[in-house]
Design goal:
Elements lengths: L6 E3 L8 H8 L2 E2 L16 E2 L7 H17 L3 H15 L10 H28 L2 H6 L2 E5 L9 H6 L3 E3 L5 H4 L10 E5 L17 E2 L4 E2 L18 H9 L4 H33 L6 E6 L2 H9 L8 E5 H7 L10 H5 L1 H4 L5 E5 L7 E8 L2 E16 L5 E15 L9 E5 L2
Parallel strand pairs: 2-3, 10-14
Antiparallel strand pairs: 1-6, 4-5, 4-6, 7-8, 9-10, 11-12, 11-15, 12-13, 13-14
Helix pairs in contact: 1-4, 2-3, 3-4, 8-9
């Protein structure tokens, strides 16, 4: 039985600890245009500052935050670093720019949010260590006294004590909003008189904010809970919900880090699908429509809902069905996430009114191949919370070897290559 010391998740900005630093330093820089492009668990793996879309700018901002966490720096010191970074990079267009009050607000948000979430994530890791969970398997929600304007729901959750693996903590593990100083205390058992059941409305969605009541937008997740999850899974969950231009740019920024993992997993999955020869409703993301292609499509009046490129297990079987006489090589197809990053040509097929498609063309030894991408194809899936939803994706429905003359058709618009 581990020693029964009090273990608390709270705000200890002046006392950084190794788990907090490890969490922050494991993040990957991710450029973005809006603060809500990436919310919830994606922040466990990525360092994001809204409107910071240039890699060198984002790296300097990241280093300034790292210095604060590692050295326990003050907000005054961070504001000096922030002002110097803004001037050095000529950064404009960020929320709060132009007034002293606006800059004070923006720097406070960056400073406080990164320290709070990294601290909470470090504590999540500590509280989930096997020895700690064995000795103190219950977590108690603690509202911090002395807050000038306490949130009513946070006050109502004060003292609530549930097991560490209760679903409540996946959304309500603090911080639960901008400036929230709530914390979690691990206990061997609930204290006498403390509530031990989730409130009846604990997962009720506020129609105004479209998030759980009492939790600010972007905070309905447990910092650190997804720190070990594959980045590919986190990005794919978000990519499908982004407008095509934003999703395309995001995928391009992440591709160098994700590519090897994505290609290896896709190849293994294709082998499994081919061996089973029966669709199970599974699918994989193989890439995203490139930013220059998104722009070229827009110039011809076509804009898909998302940039995501998807292959379903039934599409794999369709591509390699026995009746086909001009099949692609399976080994080549297993590397599809790599192949779609560098097609020889891309053609916009506008032969069917109202249903445009893209043809990805590839040069193979002594022949050409094409993959047909159906745009805005509606599919069903389970989201990160296990709930069914219908989403629009772009699907590589079929692929085959092709005669180059077949690509010279009325209604075909060459967007790239020849």
């Amino acid at each position: 039985m581990p020693q029964q010391q009090d273990i608390t998740v709270g705000i200890g900005f002046k006392q950084p600890f190794q788990a907090q630093l490890d969490f922050f330093r494991a993040k990957l820089n991710l450029p973005t245009e809006r603060w809500d492009d990436f919310i919830r668990s994606a922040h466990d793996r990525e360092f994001i500052i809204a409107c910071a879309a240039k890699a060198d700018l984002l790296q300097d901002l990241r280093q300034a935050v790292d210095d604060v966490i590692a050295k326990g720096g003050s907000i005054g010191a961070f504001r000096k670093d922030f002002a110097a970074i803004v001037a050095r990079h000529g950064w404009t267009g960020w929320t709060g720019e132009g007034t002293a009050g606006g800059q004070a607000w923006r720097t406070r948000v960056i400073y406080q949010t990164n320290l709070q979430t990294s601290h909470a994530a470090g504590r999540w890791r500590q509280l989930n260590e096997p020895a700690v969970r064995a000795g103190r398997p219950y977590w108690e929600y603690v509202h911090r006294d002395g807050v000038l304007h306490p949130r009513p729901q946070h006050l109502a959750w004060h003292g609530l004590t549930l097991r560490h693996d209760d679903a409540f903590w996946r959304r309500h593990y603090p911080p639960n909003g901008w400036g929230c100083h709530c914390r979690v205390r691990a206990r061997a058992r609930p204290r006498a008189g403390m509530p031990t059941e989730r409130p009846a409305d604990w997962d009720e969605i506020d129609p105004k904010t479209q998030t759980v009541r009492g939790i600010d937008k972007g905070f309905a997740y447990a910092p650190g809970a997804q720190a070990a999850a594959p980045r590919r899974d986190l990005i794919d969950q978000k990519l499908i919900k982004l407008d095509a231009p934003i999703g395309s740019a995001m995928f391009e920024a992440m591709r160098p880090t994700l590519q090897r993992e994505r290609t290896a997993e896709f190849g293994q999955w294709v082998s499994k699908v081919m061996a089973e020869k029966r669709p199970r409703g599974e699918w994989r993301v193989v890439g995203a429509i490139a930013p220059d292609l998104v722009s070229a499509m827009a110039a011809h009046g076509v804009m898909p809902q998302t940039a995501e490129l998807v292959v379903r297990d039934e599409d794999v079987l369709h591509t390699f069905r026995d009746a086909k006489r001009v099949q692609l090589a399976e080994d080549w197809y297993r590397g599809l996430p790599d192949q779609v990053t560098a097609p020889a040509a891309v053609v916009l097929d506008k032969t069917v009114v109202g249903s445009p498609a893209l043809l990805y063309v590839f040069d193979l030894p002594d022949q050409r191949a094409k993959l047909v991408l159906n745009l805005d194809y509606t599919v069903a899936r389970r989201n990160a919370e296990g709930k069914k939803e219908r989403v629009s994706v772009n699907i590589f429905r079929a692929g085959r070897l092709v005669d180059p003359q077949d690509l010279d058709q009325p209604g075909y618009v060459w967007l790239q290559g020849k």
